[in-house]
Amino acid sequence: MLTIAISKGRIFADSIPLLAAAGIEPAVDPDKSRLLIIGTNRPDVQLLVVRATDVPTYVEYGAADVGSAGKDVLLEYDSDGLYEPLDLNIARCRMMTAARVGYHPAGQRLRVATKYVKIAQRYFAAQGIQAEIIKLYGSMELAPLVGLADCIVDLVDTGNTLKANGLEPRELIMHISSRLIVNKAAMKMKHAQVTEFIGHLSQFVANA
Ligand code: PRT
Ligand code: MG
Question: Nearest C-alpha to atom 21 of ligand 1 is from which residue?
């Protein structure tokens, strides 16, 4: 059995053509179902529906053999207990700083609100900027509006969310896309099945 960990929403939507390229069709759409273990057209392949931030955990501990996770999630998870053999080039966006339109902080120490604490810490340290990172779990856009932070670090796709909240993108920290991750033991124990799966995906990504 090959077990694939995947999150609902944008990653799943973008993964359907990739799975199809590997001959895999999920039995149900997880966005329309409450099932957490989803069978496929192939008796030897199943999907686990997990939170995006939990995908690396399921794969590292071997509850799933492979998975698809955003580079943002992988950088925050920050473990060398996983293989990351392929950039799937899906769910693309940019990790950016953003602030209130026209706002320029006056203080010595920048206050930064974010869900991406490690990415933010590394970025500001590399820039030689003293930053106090304030961890939030969501709705980061609110923080600069109510004086909790000078700026935020968040994912930006269209920029509509920032704009709707009177914020503007500032610095690009990095481009983000989803990566295929593989459990280290599965790479050995299920070598044929895993390499065949990676092969189909690589071919699809190369031709996309
Ligand atoms: O939603 P849940 O709390 O379960 O988990 P999650 O938010 O981690 O999952 P999900 O499905 O929302 O995101 C999964 C992955 O998609 C992320 O880890 C990213 O790698 C990738 N991705 C791609 C994005 C975006 N684009 C994106 N635009 N993740 C989030 N956003 C959010 C962003 O945080 C901001 O709130 O969309 C908003 C900005 O979008 P625009 O278009 O208004 O700029
Ligand atoms: Mg979300």
Answer: 91
